[in-house]
Amino acid sequence: MKLRKVLSIxxxxxxxxxxxxxCKSKKKVSxxxxxxKIMDDLPCTKEGRSDKKFFRASSMATSTDLQLSxxxxxxxxxxxxVTLIKSTTKSVTDRYINERGFSDASEVESKFENxxxxxxxxxxxxxxxxxxxxxxxxxxxxxxxxxxEVNRDDVLTGMDQRLSNDKKLQVDYDKKKFEDIFNEEMDKxxxxxxx
Length: 195
Description:
Number of helices: 7
Oligomer: single chain
Shape: elongated
Strand order of the largest sheet: 1-3-2
Number of strands: 3
């Protein structure tokens, strides 16, 4: 009889334990819990949006050192800015080459590509920080946010100077046509990004 009581109590304890365990596993995980907290607006994001007058980029970086997080954020933003400038000027030069109808288009395109790279890298010396914010996390790490910009005229002037100095391209260079295409691409970039 004693054995029966012990077995009954043991069985009851097991059933109750499994019952509670089963309740735990039935907890539903919401989509929000699975994704995490969605951040609609990170600091400096709005200030990092390009328009037809400025090339802009924003970035964020985390580090245990505040200054290092700021430097990493700036470096990432500069990389994004250079990529944006290169892709925009590449579109401009491709259109310009096609519309001008160069006979040796591949050679001209190669020269333009080199110029684009040089101008994009050179414009980094004209970068202006338009937003910079930092926060400290619960774990003691720092988040730094930054937005930078370069005036579109700096990029256009850099391209113009390089094109004017290249003897072969100088013969066929139409500054007005190049600038018109450049302005159209800046307008298009603004419209595509919805700013």
